[in-house]
Amino acid sequence: MKDKTIDYVLRATWQAVSRMYNEEASKYGATMATGFALLSMDKDKGTPSTSLGPKMGMEATSLTRTLKSMEEKGLIIRKKNPEDGRGVLIYLTDFGKEKRELSKSTVLKFNETVKQNISDEKLQHFLEVSETINELIQEKNIFNITENIENDGVISL
Description:
Layout: H1 6-26, H2 32-40, E1 47-48, H3 49-56, H4 60-72, E2 76-81, E3 84-92, H5 94-117, H6 120-138
Antiparallel strand pairs: 1-3, 2-3
């Protein structure tokens, strides 16, 4: 393909990032999903299991598998929610907190390396473009485009 589409670049970049994180996580017997889950949990108060899926953008079945694996590895424990007996709170164990810090340092290292190699201005543009793409998607302005085109052919946001 001569000209790469925006979605191709996004997908290829995310796959490279995902592969990088999974390779790093595998050194510690983990996965990127495990690291992301650790970082998405409150390290002290516990986290309702129902809030993790939406926070992580993960389907319930994938999240269930990830949490089961984390529990088997001793990273988390589940306890009934004292305020709502139907719910479950997930707590990090001491081992989970240790691995959470490792995950955090891995993400911070990636961020720092990117910042050292990309100017602040370019990084700011990247963040602005990413935010606009997310807004277009959330507002369902991609495939309902004919409703949003003004007379001059410019999409209104």
